[in-house]
Amino acid sequence: MKKITAMFAAAFAALMILLTPLKAAAVWVRDDYGILSSAEVDKLNEMAESISAEYGVGTYIRVVNGTEGMGIESYAEYLFNNEGMGLGTSGEGVLLTIDMADRYYDIAAHGDIANTQFTDYRKDRMAEDFLDDLSRGYYYNAFKTYLSDCDYYLRTEVVIYKPAPKTIKDFAPLFAIPPLAGLITVLIQKRRLKTRGIRTTANNYIPQGGVHLSNMIDMYLYREVHRTPIPKVEHSSEKHETGHTTINSGGFSHHSGRF
Questions:
Q1: How confident is the model at residue 174, as a pLDDT?
Q2: Which of 149, 46, 43, 53 is nearest to 92 (CA)?
Q3: Is 172 exposed, middle or buried (0-12, 13-18, 19+ CB in 10 A)?
């Protein structure tokens, strides 16, 4: 009897597996607006699928015509959750949403790995890389650049820039320059005021007939100008990268704007 029951249980389980709908293959790239050819969508899908499989982080692109009255970031989160995006138990994924109606874009990351690798700084850099092509209508090139950046940042460790600590040598010029400048100024003034001999009275400085003052003019003979150079910010250097990621209550981090 127990054997018959076990056989019926196994048969029932097998039947349930056959009747359970298979999960549809992930759509990595979808263009609902029609700015890409079918061949371009296929190529981007292949690229996104390869990146997603290698790193365990879903890499997605959605081109839409409007956001149903939501802000671009809220709509990106809606798409991510509604379509079941993300891989693994933590829903690892990065989504580029393009709204052609209002010309907004958003890069949204979700999951522990995605939020670690796609920091605020990195998402900003990614946007800089593809925005020029996106604005000029080279959509395929823009999306290919985005996917290439996803691949690069997923395999590249986050480098946190920390400035070197200041030492006494860095402050030495602050103590040496002012006294030296003051000494030079005193020596120059002393040289200008030097006379040939010592006078005990002021008679030699008074012209015949006395002194008649008719006009008075204030004249500033010298001035000091102190200039401090403003250090240049090297946006193109990776050494200024920071590991900070701003994550909201839904577990998403964003970078959005217009194109």
A1: 61
A2: 53
A3: exposed
Protein fold of 26-160+238-258: Diaminopimelate Epimerase; Chain A, domain 1 (3.10.310)
Distance CA 58, CA 66 (A): 23
What are the tens digits of pLDDT across the range 31-64? 999 999 999 999 999 999 999 999 999 999 999 9
- What is the chain's Cα-based Rg? 36
Domain boundaries, the chain: 26-160+238-258
Close Cβ partners of 75 (under 8 Å, ≥ 6 residues apart): 64, 67, 68, 97, 99, 106
pLDDT of 12 higher than 90: no
Q: How many CB atoms lie within 10 A of CB 173?
A: 10
Q: pLDDT tens digits, residue range 197-216?
A: 566 666 666 666 666 666 66
Whole-structure pTM value:
0.64
Contact 121, 113 (CB under 8 A): no
Handedness of CA 208, 213, 217, 223 (dihedral sign): positive
